[in-house]
Fold:
Amino acid sequence: MKSKSTRMQTMPLTLLASAIMAAAASSAMAAENRGQRYSPGVGGSDMTSLLVPGWYGQVAMIQYHATKLKDNNGDTVNTVAAGTVPRANIVAGLPSAQQSAANTALAGAGFQGVGYSTRLENFRADVYAALLRVTYLSTSQAFGANLGFTAMLPVVRRQTSLEADTTLSSANMATLGAVVGSTAATAIGDNIRNTVNGQASRNKGQATGLGDLEISPLLHWELGDNQAISFAPTIVVPTGDYNKNSAVNAGYGNFYTFRPSVQYGYIGDGWDVGVRAVLSFNSRNKDTDYKSGNMFNLDFQLMKFVTDDLRLGLQGYVVQQFSDDASGDATTQAAIDLADGNRMRTFALGPALAWIKNGGEMMIEGKFLREFGSQNRTEGTAYWLTISKPFGM
Structure:
């Protein structure tokens, strides 16, 4: 027979676990696991660099750091779960001989369960990635545009850490202690805290590996001497390292993304302007039955030549989810509905500095982008270092 303390540790808390999972999903999911397959901010001075037929290589390195998780209202997520552990679950954790009497006494005292509130503490999310891209532009043309292709494979390290602290209703615990005794009540309270904290902090972890492969044909139009437009209808293939049971993965999941983008660049006498508009349409993750909502991204830059080789300016991005998330799991779908579809949003702005060797032999760019106005996602800071080099025909 199990000891009394063992029975307290294994008492059924299925309803509690479901409540925690629903609360966490409603406050912090937005697209599956709060992520999207496009790297906001990747567009920079390359959007206004001369593109002529030939081969190009690029390595974009990013370090993203966030200590804030924002909810549907744009507020920092602190309380990630609140509710009541039902009386029936608590009584079921007592020795069989005590359950009936305890249930009667607790019911007579008006005891319905133990209320709890769980706060998120010490949240941190970090991403380190190298985006390896190769691009080829040919002399062949269609619709007035040079034809080519581009492909990108990320190498990624992601890590998330967080803690949870659960507070129990002192009035509920006092009523419980008066019926079952202080020792049993303390054991029950410890079990509730451990269970709730474990569920609330289950999304922490780390992963290193290959991300999802991006491939796309490329059409590039030169509009006179100082303007250009590019169109890239990208397909993202789920080649990345992914396990649905892992809280953190290098890949985003077992689904495809169709991501058409249009890029405009203006090269002026002093100021350069570049804009890239991107749409992402996601299929359903076959492993989790979760469909992340469709996304709109806008990268932009305004740069000025301060010397013959140096550009200095401002860069930023917009992220806006424009359709709801959806899930085949009823509990998860209910949480999505409570959060008005879990639509993700953020903005970012920051300085950038680019060095262009000998008018185009190589470009190195660094930038610092700070996010603000976030909803249903993390809010942090991105540090970028990008090296781009043409290799000729």
Summary: The first strand starts at residue 54 and ends at 70.
